[in-house]
Amino acid sequence: MARDGTNRGRPKGSGRFDWTRIRSDYETGTFSVPMLAEKYGASRQAIHRHMAEEGWTIGSSSKAVANRTREKVIFTDPKVAREDAIEAAATANARIIREHQRVAGRGRDLALRLLQELEETTGHLPTLEELVEIATTEDKTGLRAKLIARLGTGSRAVAMRDIATAVKTWVDVERTAFNLDGEKEDDLGKWTDERIAARLAELLRKAGAAPAA
């Protein structure tokens, strides 16, 4: 007579046990006859009868179970987990370094464009001075003198110095981002976001561009 819970081993709408499932469990080598009887609610005698009539054999599925078990163990092995963590960290660092490379390149290009604009302004200086004189013909506030002074050599020299500082700073940052100076003690893959930021701050301080603390 079937035990309590017999419906666990029976297909819905059927009065029979699901002997296909019971046999599959048995052939994995994981379940004994008493365990199957407990799991599905079938009697041990009935299970033994099906084993004899259908030729159930332990081992036909046990190898597959063993292989799958090894796969799960290997997948969760601490060494594998550590390698996965290292790979993820290296990927993140590479992404950060590439972003700093793009930023450094844009900063250098901007500084060079400012230099080009200064060159163009210098080339048109006489015209600009004439426009200032025309626009300030009746000026009595000293505006003309101030504007002419702004167009003078001194102002352009200051602008040239600032642009040169910016170009040098961004070139240094770019060389750092691409590891072009080949620092022997460093490995590019070990550069973190914090280290790049610290290096950038250092370069800005050296260039005199960092704000006072």
Write a brief structural summary.
This protein is an all-alpha fold and 213 residues long. Helices cover 69% and strands 0% of the residues.
Describe this structure in words.
The protein is an all-alpha fold and 213 residues long. It has two domains: 6-75, no CATH class; 79-206, no CATH class. It is 69% helix and 0% strand. The protein contains nine helices and no strands. The chain has helices at 19-27, 33-40, 44-54, 62-75, 78-123, 125-135, 143-150, 153-177, 193-206. Helix 8 runs antiparallel to helix 9. The radius of gyration is 40 Å and the shape is rod-shaped. The protein starts with 18 loop residues before the first helix and ends in a 7-residue tail after the last helix. Residues 1-7, 9-15 and 209-213 have low confidence and may be disordered.
Secondary-structure map with pairings?
Blueprint: H1 19-27, H2 33-40, H3 44-54, H4 62-75, H5 78-123, H6 125-135, H7 143-150, H8 153-177, H9 193-206
Helix pairs in contact: 5-8, 8-9
